[in-house]
Design a protein that fits this description.
This protein is mainly α. It folds into three domains: 1-91, Fumarase C, Chain B, domain 1; 95-343, Fumarase C, Chain A, domain 2; 349-424, Ribonucleotide Reductase Protein R1, domain 1 (Orthogonal Bundle). Helices cover 62% and strands 5% of the residues. The strands form three sheets. A two-stranded antiparallel sheet has the order 1-2. Strands 3-4 form a two-stranded parallel ribbon. Strand 3, helix 9 and strand 4 form a beta-alpha-beta unit. The longest helix is centred in the first third of the chain and has 37 residues, at 95-131. The protein starts with 7 loop residues before the first helix and ends with a helix. The mean pLDDT is 95.
């Protein structure tokens, strides 16, 4: 992933050196387990423990000749060891015992970073929703004014979507943070199952229940779908903010510093570029889902068709997702809200947003529904064509209704508020 769309804490997890460090950690734990079984001598275990992970450059040099990354890593790792210690490294293992177990560990840590960011976004969205719970604004369906709602209610919907995404991602984290140390075709032919239990236990990993030579790739696909879904929920927030920041609407605005410049030619421009970036990143995340789903089906006990996809897709999915969610936290937290513009928008159509209220009042008076609907509709059409107020039009038609007050639409609004307040107390 390009540096522009990554945060340092996530980028470190996906560096080549961190991967080799993790591989070395797995090899040490395997040697420890086999020492407990009486296989690896104490002197050899001590040598394996004290040997650092090889530098990337040394592994790369071996790989140019061998065309096999794991064997090149092992050659570089064992290079400084005495031969009688090096012979116990990787004992009874196959390459993907090392690769998939280390990958499960890295995926778990990377997903934890994303989960932390998603929980922070959930909190930021809930807090902003509670702050603006009573901030009246117009609801829009099909892009057209509907009934009044509140800006807090809009944000509440997004907060619950992020909460659902946190739950999906938590489940995917459990699925993907697994390892296997079971040998060439997963039968434990040359390695005691205790080794797998010991290593995975020490690394806080689950165990693949029926390994082949690799852990099942539906796990990785589940993670990709969960991250892409979270990205789409962030996109939903960003899209709404983009629409509300249009010049003719201007109900919200991304916070800008005095040094901000929105256009090289037009100094007045204050563009929703962060929200636009959030939408673009969501498209990238969705783009990785297809290849990850295609990685599920492998030949027999395994082939290598999945490897190149994962080497690109998994770091990118988690790095992009983490960057996108972290940026969304900043956008939501710093969002500037124009309550006056929101109120003005409710009245923009001269009161026509109260048509459903007038209809309800007529029905309550016993007016036949079709007649009531057509009467109110005619008033709205007359008001629009003559550029007059809707309440004047219904008065001319002799319609007597209750007060046209936005608060009447929010009589039962407290129901959603209670749910939002419960979400504010969520910790998971």
């Amino acid at each position: 992933m390009i540096e522009r769309f990554s945060r340092p804490e996530m980028a470190r997890l996906w560096s080549d050196q961190h991967r080799y460090n993790t591989w070395a950690e797995v090899e040490v734990l395997v040697a420890e387990a086999q020492h407990h079984l009486g296989l690896v001598p104490g002197e050899a275990l001590a040598e394996i423990r004290r040997t650092p992970a090889p530098p990337v450059e040394r592994v790369t040099a071996f790989e140019r000749e061998r065309d096999h990354e794991v064997l090149s890593f092992l050659a570089a790792y064992c290079e400084p060891m005495p031969a009688d210690s090096a012979c116990w490294v990787h004992h009874g293992m196959t390459s993907y015992d090392l690769v998939d177990t280390a990958s499960g560990y890295i995926l778990g840590r990377a997903t934890d970073l994303l989960l932390d960011a998603a929980r922070t976004l959930r909190t930021a969205t809930v807090d902003k929703a509670l702050l603006h719970w009573d901030t009246l604004c117009i609801g829009r369906t099909h892009g057209v004014h509907a009934e009044p709602t509140t800006f807090g209610h809009k944000l509440a919907g997004f907060a619950f979507a992020i909460d659902r995404s946190v739950r999906r991602l938590s489940a995917a984290r459990e699925s993907v943070a697994v390892g296997t140390i079971s040998g060439a075709v997963g039968t434990y032919a040359l390695i005691d199952p205790f080794v797998e239990e010991y290593v995975c236990g020490r690394m806080s990993l689950g165990i693949e229940q029926a390994p082949s030579q690799v852990v099942a790739r539906d796990r990785h696909a589940e993670l990709a779908v969960a991250v892409a879904t979270l990205g789409a929920c962030v996109e939903a927030i960003a899209l709404e903010l983009r629409l509300l920041q249009r010049t003719e609407v201007r109900e919200v605005e991304e916070r800008r510093t005095s040094a901000y410049q929105g256009s090289s030619a037009m100094p007045h421009k204050r563009n929703p570029t962060s929200s636009e970036r959030l939408c673009g990143l969501a498209r990238l995340l969705r783009g990785y889902v297809g290849p990850m789903l295609e990685d599920i089906a492998l030949w027999h006990e395994r082939d290598l068709a999945h490897a190149a996809v994962e080497r690109v897709a998994l770091p990118d999915i988690l790095t992009l997702g983490h960057y996108q969610v972290s940026l969304a936290v900043e956008v939501v937290t710093d969002l500037e809200v124009s309550e006056d513009r929101m109120l003005a928008a409710i009245d923009h159509s001269g009161g026509m947003v109260f048509s459903s209220m007038v209809l309800a009042d007529l029905l309550a008076q016993g007016v036949e529904r079709e007649h009531a609907y057509r009467t109110v509709q005619a008033c709205a059409v007359d008001a629009a064509r003559s550029n007059t107020r809707f309440d004047d039009a219904i008065a001319e038609h002799g319609i007597g209704v209750g007060q046209l007050d936005p608060a009447r639409f929010l009589t039962n609004h407290h129901v959603v508020l209670r749910r939002l307040q419960a979400l504010a107390d969520t910790k998971g």
